[in-house]
Specification:
By secondary structure, the protein is mainly alpha-helical. 75% of the residues lie in helices and 2% in strands.
């Protein structure tokens, strides 16, 4: 029965695409498209809820050694619920926010292909989080990657979109090799692909498995040095960015770490590596977000930073804290991306310095402010609770780790403040009047944003006494007890970050930036460095190709020339020699035949003479043999 959870959205995506292309034309089908996509997401959510309460499972025997299986753990249940819960308002938003051109007349039709792909993305992610063996996990992992590539390249007519989609795809594909290595190590050590058999793995194969899983998860969750692929992913439509960053593609990496935490932590080096990786990403991505002037790229860097904090919590031994922060971050980031998309529709740009839409869009501004304050870690909003638990988790390893984690939280407050004030602060220089002349957003887009903001407010109940402990018991996880000094330091740094954000916004008077700041805002020049590395590899490859042409292929070309020379020689002289030898052989056979015919005279005494001669020869041979 559990197979119905991923199959429902996957099959429904085909139906939406096939039916929509024939029936949903022009602008009249938006409501039907939004309703169909949201209904599939809600139906998936209901199926997951039933599966959790009824303890559903599912297996399919591929062969005697390979069995595809689905199951439900506390981590997979949370992810399976959050994915359609976040996807439903995003799909509604996409049906009204995006449009597909029809012909050359300037008309547009509902984004049927986009909604179908988003629905399929939900199904692929559900299959990933419910997988109980590595074969099923790899199938889902590939589906998620393929859907993300198609969604990023959805507007393929725009210059550079296909290139950016390919870059994001190839970077994550490089990390995907780690998952294949991990699966191979598991099969070599246990003779099975089942996740339940991981406890049997030990020795060097366990180290190989952990290394492969860390590589795959780090690439998917945009940890350093893979973080820049998130900027390339910004070429996709706004709903794609919202779903990809909040609950699907990027979330796959941290899900793998949370789901396999018991096996990963069995290796002594996993904890330090996860802490170092997560903390470095949180700090670097935080600085990048603080310097970014592009709304979606700021939020993308923020995503990398927040997932870095989740890695920090998992490395410190508290995967449950990472799980809760995933939930709070999903609502926060989805809402902020939708708000950025609405702002872009009004000013035709993602430049933060071109916005300042607070007076024009008061409702959107309030909803975005709730999400920005949550991202900043302002008490008593939801993301603040999980962020404080991450700082406490870091403090269980060392006090200085808690302080550095709090600094990363302060950076979150700084870039969240920058985003809110630049995007939805007070307008100036006539920007508000200019923006009001452009076509705005629909009510459905605003409602989708309001629903996500309301979800954040509901999750703020985590601050209510006793709710956290009840949640820990429900999920069978452990939350660290917050220390007073850590909370005070964290709140002070949040206040400092908000203050610095206000100060930074007041100093930003134009979209022009220095070359140094531009390089730092682009991941400290890491993409340029990567491009140079790629160019060096390509130059080396071209050198090898030239060596192959000149040295290796030279022998092959010489052999070909020698063969051609032999053919010409045979054509000139060999044919006559071969024909002469054949004629001589024929003459010799004819002569032998004539000689043989002479013995066949038909007279008996000739035959007796021959027999006598043969016997005499035999006697002579035998006599010689006897003497020897």
């Amino acid at each position: 029965m559990l197979w119905s959870v991923p199959l429902l959205p996957l099959l429904a995506a085909l139906v939406i695409y096939g039916f929509g292309k024939r029936r949903l034309g022009d602008d009249k089908g938006r409501a039907a498209l939004a309703l169909a996509g949201a209904a599939i997401a809600v139906a998936t959510l209901l199926l997951v809820s039933v599966a959790v309460t009824a303890d559903w499972g599912g297996t399919y025997r591929w062969s005697s050694r390979i069995v595809l299986s689905l199951g439900m753990t506390s981590a997979s249940a949370v992810f399976a619920i959050v994915v359609p819960l976040i996807a439903a308002p995003i799909i509604v938003y996409s049906a009204y926010h995006e449009a597909s051109p029809v012909g050359d007349g300037g008309t547009a039709r509902p984004p049927i292909g986009l909604v179908a792909l988003l629905t399929a993305f939900v199904g692929a992610m559900e299959l990933l989080v419910l997988a109980e063996d590595f074969v099923t996990l790899l199938i889902a992992w590939e589906l998620v990657g393929a859907c993300s590539w198609a969604l990023i390249a959805h507007e393929w007519q725009k210059a550079g979109n296909l290139r950016d989609a390919a870059w994001a795809f190839l970077v994550t594909r490089f990390g995907d090799l780690g998952l294949y290595i991990a699966a191979a190590a598991v099969f070599a050590g246990t003779g099975s692909f089942a996740l339940a058999d991981l406890a049997q793995l030990d020795g060097w194969l366990l180290d190989v498995f952990v290394a492969g899983a860390v590589l795959a998860a780090a690439a998917k969750s945009a940890q350093l040095p893979f973080s820049p692929w998130l900027f390339a992913a910004m070429s996709g439509p706004t709903p794609v960015s919202a779903l990809l960053h909040a609950a699907t593609m990027v979330a796959a990496g941290i899900y793998l770490v949370i789901r396999l935490h018991a096996e990963l932590s069995a290796v002594a080096w996993f904890g330090p590596v996860a802490i170092a990786l997560g903390l470095a990403t949180a700090l670097v991505a935080g600085v990048v977000a603080c310097l970014q002037g592009h709304a979606k790229k700021l939020l993308a860097a923020s995503t990398s930073a927040q997932y870095g904090l989740m890695w920090l919590a998992a490395g410190a031994g508290f995967p449950g804290v990472a799980l809760v922060h995933f939930v709070t971050h999903a609502f926060t980031k989805a809402a902020l991306f939708l708000a950025a998309g609405i702002a872009e529709r009004h000013v035709d740009s993602y430049s933060l310095n071109a916005m300042r839409l607070g007076r024009l869009l008061p409702g959107v501004a309030v909803a975005a402010m709730v999400a920005s304050l949550a991202l900043a870690g302002v008490v008593p909003l939801s993301a603040a609770w999980s962020k404080e638990k991450i700082i406490t988790a870091a403090g269980h390893q060392a006090s200085w780790l808690a302080v550095i984690a709090a600094v990363a939280g302060g950076l979150s407050a700084l870039y969240a403040t920058r985003f809110q004030l630049l995007a939805f602060g007070r307008g100036r220089h006539g920007r508000t009047s200019a923006a009001s002349s452009r076509s705005g957003h629909s009510r459905a887009e605003a409602v989708a944003l309001y629903l996500l903001s309301a979800g954040m407010l509901v999750l703020s109940l985590l601050w209510w006494p006793g709710i956290g402990n009840s949640l820990a018991d429900l999920l069978s996880v452990h939350f660290p007890k917050t220390k007073l000094w850590e909370l005070i330091v964290s709140l002070l740094l949040v206040a400092l970050g908000v203050g610095l954000g206000i100060w930074a916004v007041r100093r930003e008077v134009s979209s022009q930036q220095s070359e140094t700041r531009t390089a730092m805002a682009d991941w400290f020049g890491l993409p340029t460095l990567s491009a140079r590395g790629v160019n060096a590899v390509m130059m080396f490859s071209h050198g090898l190709a030239r060596f192959d042409d000149r040295a290796v292929d030279a022998g092959i070309r010489a052999s070909a020339r020698f063969g051609a020379w032999l053919a010409r020689l045979g054509e000139r002289r060999g044919e006559g020699a071969f024909d002469g030898a054949t004629n001589q052989l024929a003459k010799g056979v004819d002569w032998s035949g004539q000689v043989a015919r002479r013995a066949h005279t038909g007279q008996m005494h000739h035959y007796y003479t021959g027999i006598a001669a043969g016997l005499a020869a035999i006697l002579i041979i035998l006599s010689i043999g006897a003497l020897l």
